[in-house]
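Per your request, structure below.
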């Protein structure tokens, strides 16, 4: 740290050799800067404050019935859109600044000028907006603030109504589009139902129950067919052991036909204990008993006819068994046909099930699309009514109120430039530049100020040094030089003080030119 301090002091000693260069530079910079600051044109700032009241008594009453716009956010948005080119051109026309523009380039310059001179700021917690305009003409500054205030209020209210109209047009357009889509969806469903009549859900009964019933009927038919085949085979076996003819022995016994009828009736009684009267086997036995009784009646009639004198008699049991065999074969054929019918019916139901599932899936998709379109359509109708009511509320009531808290006034004193502060800055800048110039010259033309510095830089032994013996004449000369340097610096300060005094009294080059 000590070494750095010694080095800094060394540079200052070297820089003192060029102090007059620094003073001359400071004088040139300060004089030029003060002249520039003094002739800077005055700018006047006109301001106005407006309070935006976004509270309304109707809002809590109409909550849920109308659309509640965020008025505060809309007003904040308008503060950002206030400085768009159309609004600035409108402000220029309201203040007659457009009359000075001869072409599009001139209008562009006016718009840029307004963009730089107009400002708006807000206190969001209090909804107070401050509008300000800067111009060299105080009357023009006031007119600019008044025009900007008018545009701000009109734009905020106009955008509200414009948004409502745009929302209404959009909703009406969407409702017409959804009406068209609803008609198309209804027509598609109608054509689909007409094309797939009989396969729709609820038509033709429950397909699963029909398929289950068909399977049950098929199992019963197969069981009946098996029993009929066994019965047929048994009758055929018994028929092989029976004689077609037998001789009469004069013994009075029951006829074979009656014996057969009694056996079948006994079997029928046993089957009725297990099955109902609608069972296929029960029906077949009843049919066989009826046939046997009919044959018995025919034989009784034939017995009353004269004998033909033959020595033998046909075996009625053989004849009855042949008849029973024929009936059994017919029953087997009938049951086989029934089994084929049930199998074909099951196959048809399975095919219908595949088709019905496809139809059901397609119908669900159509109904789902239709339901979605219908829900959106009903929602749009509800939103249209809300938008209509909201527009009526905005047109007939004041949803937002603008209250001018501080109207624009003609400023009596200029707000800029702050010549005192600028003059201080020029003075400080002049001294800094002058001091910097002396340091720069000391760095560009360095000198050795001590034996130690010479030894460290050259890396050579120093045998000795010769000191300066200041005679009185030289000392007086150095003292006078120091006084002149202080006088030069004090002259700058005196001129600076005079400028401050003149500025306080309102005297400057700009006021003299006016």
């Amino acid at each position: 740290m000590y070494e750095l301090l010694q080095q800094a002091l060394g540079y200052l000693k070297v820089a003192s050799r060029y102090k007059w260069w620094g003073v001359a530079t400071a004088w040139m910079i300060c004089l030029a800067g003060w002249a520039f600051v003094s002739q800077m044109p005055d700018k006047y700032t006109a301001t106005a404050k407006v309070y935006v009241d976004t509270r309304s008594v109707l809002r809590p009453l109409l909550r849920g019935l109308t659309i509640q716009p965020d008025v505060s956010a809309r007003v904040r948005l308008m503060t950002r859109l206030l400085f768009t080119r159309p609004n600035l051109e409108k402000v220029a026309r309201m203040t007659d600044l457009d009359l000075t523009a001869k072409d599009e380039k001139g209008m562009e310059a006016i718009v840029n000028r307004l963009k730089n001179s107009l400002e708006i700021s807000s206190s969001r917690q209090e909804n107070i907006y401050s509008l300000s305009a800067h111009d060299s003409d105080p009357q023009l500054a006031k007119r600019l603030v008044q025009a900007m205030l008018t545009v701000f209020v009109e734009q905020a209210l106009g955008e509200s109504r414009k948004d409502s109209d745009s929302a209404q047009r959009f909703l009406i357009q969407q409702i017409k589009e959804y009406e068209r889509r609803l008609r198309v969806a209804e027509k598609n469903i109608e054509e689909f139902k007409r094309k797939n009549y009989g396969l729709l859900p609820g038509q033709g009964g429950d397909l699963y129950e029909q398929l289950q019933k068909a399977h049950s009927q098929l199992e019963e038919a197969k069981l009946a067919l098996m029993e009929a085949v066994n019965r047929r085979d048994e009758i055929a076996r018994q028929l092989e052991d029976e004689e077609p003819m037998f001789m009469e022995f004069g013994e009075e016994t029951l006829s074979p036909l009656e014996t057969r009828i009694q056996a079948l009736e006994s079997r029928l009684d046993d089957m009725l204990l297990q099955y109902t009267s609608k069972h296929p086997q029960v029906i077949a036995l009843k049919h066989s008993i009826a046939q046997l009784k009919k044959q018995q009646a025919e034989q009784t009639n034939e017995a009353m006819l004269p004998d033909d004198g033959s020595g033998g008699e046909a075996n009625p049991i053989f004849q009855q068994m042949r008849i029973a065999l024929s009936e059994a074969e017919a029953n087997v054929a009938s049951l086989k046909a029934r089994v084929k019918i049930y199998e074909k019916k099951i196959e048809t139901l399975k095919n219908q099930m595949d088709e019905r599932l496809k139809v059901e899936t397609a119908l669900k998709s159509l109904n789902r699309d239709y339901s979605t379109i219908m829900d959106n359509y009903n929602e749009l109708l509800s939103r249209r009514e809300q938008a209509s009511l909201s527009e009526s509320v905005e047109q007939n009531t004041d949803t937002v109120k603008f209250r001018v808290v501080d109207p624009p006034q003609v400023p009596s004193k200029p707000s800029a430039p702050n010549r005192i502060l600028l003059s201080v800055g020029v003075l400080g800048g002049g001294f800094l530049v002058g001091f910097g110039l002396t340091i720069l010259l000391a760095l560009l033309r360095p000198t050795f100020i001590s034996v130690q510095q010479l030894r460290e830089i050259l890396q050579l032994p120093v045998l000795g040094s010769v000191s300066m013996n200041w005679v009185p004449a030289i000392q007086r000369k150095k003292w006078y030089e120091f006084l002149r340097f202080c006088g030069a610096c004090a002259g700058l300060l005196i001129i600076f003080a005079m400028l401050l005094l003149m500025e306080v009294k309102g005297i400057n080059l700009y006021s003299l030119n006016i």
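The two ends are 58 Å apart (CA to CA).

Regards,
D.
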